[in-house]
Design brief:
By secondary structure, the protein is α/β, with parallel strands linked by helices. Helix content is about 60%, strand content about 15%. It has 18 helices and eleven strands.
Amino acid sequence: MKTFLSVFLTCLFLSITLLAQEKQEDQALEYIKTGNTLREAAQYQRSEEFLLKGLNAIKDKNKYWEASAYENLGLLYRDQSRSDDAIVNFRKALKIYQSLRSATSVKAVTALLEGVEEIEKLYAGIEIGAKGVKLSVVGIRLGIDGHYLFDIKEDTSINPNIISLSDKAIEEAVDAVNEFYSHIKKEYKIPEDKVFIVASSGVMTETKKKGKLEEVKKKINDGVKGYSKEIHFITPEEEAFYAIKGSTLPRYRAISTTIDIGSGNTKGGFLVGKKLDQLSPLTFEFGTGTFAQKIAENKIEMLQGYDSVARYLAKEYVYQDVKKELSENAGFRTRRIVHLAGGAPWAVVTLMYPEKVEEMFVQVSPADIRKFRINVMKEHELVTAPNLNYITDENIRAKAQSEIDRLNKSFTREEMIAGSIILDALVYQLNSDVPKKFYYARLGYIGWITGYIMEAVANEYALLDE
């Protein structure tokens, strides 16, 4: 009987102890959760109090939640720019996650730690576009606000006219890709898994239209040396999705539209779905280069000047298509913020607001765009050589002049006219129902490559198991 009573009391004691521990753990988790909520609300002092309470209550009892407490303290100190304290806590969290072999948490906290330590990772994107082959070398790190920051290390291009789809043009494009790929391996030592070679939607659209998609795909994939991954020809919808992810501020993605005027086509849309992981697309087959080419072809047939033909085709070819497409989707008409990317808005901002060369988002008005369209047709030489003497900061003035030089090297008068017509048509129709704010997204010209990289990073996380 005494033995039975002893066993009973022992079991009762253990049960009470376990219940007490569970209650203590539940309390600790509530402290950690409350502390994190207070951090999000910028109540930093109270947040620290709750997180420390949670850490003290859970320490040495549940290693996973102990690591979580350190991680949230790291986030708290990061948000306050207390970098040293953030680093200490992230490292403690990382050590525990590593001991638990929690792969996803290890990768996430490593990224947070590198962000605070301002360690960036290099990625490279090689875009085979309608206007040429472009190399973008980008340093990526997590910023204080928890969003990725991009530092452009190199941005250069070689301009074979691949859109002609001649054997020579395709061969020159392949040579350009090989030259860039060799360059980034030698100069930056970027591993293959962080290099993305992609053919743009403009190339995909033109090759498909002319029945040469599979032929060109094979020539390019066979011709690029030392790259084991398949070179993907992305669709306009994919390119628009990546451009939105890579060139717009996260807080505006749910309420904005993005339009990217490329050389081979024009595309865009807005994100939908609970996780903003789907695209409501907008696509036009005309772009700055293809529309300029169409004007040139019709100029010969109609025996008229370039400007006259441009006005005629703008009315018959661009404005009607834009009006029809936008009228069929209410989302484009009702969203009040529009991000503009591509060569045409770049030209408007570079030539009309050169002093804003360092601003990542520059607001432009429909009136600005219409004025630019009219002036670039009438006074191209004056418009493309603005007087910069009013810019008193020498560094800004030098950067502005460099950007103007790069723009004028990239686009002919005819291409600027074609791009301005497309941009004016889009902005006029978008603004016709509900007045909107239009912003040039400066990173838009490499936006879809950075968006492509961000998706690749996200996919790495998806493949990991806790």
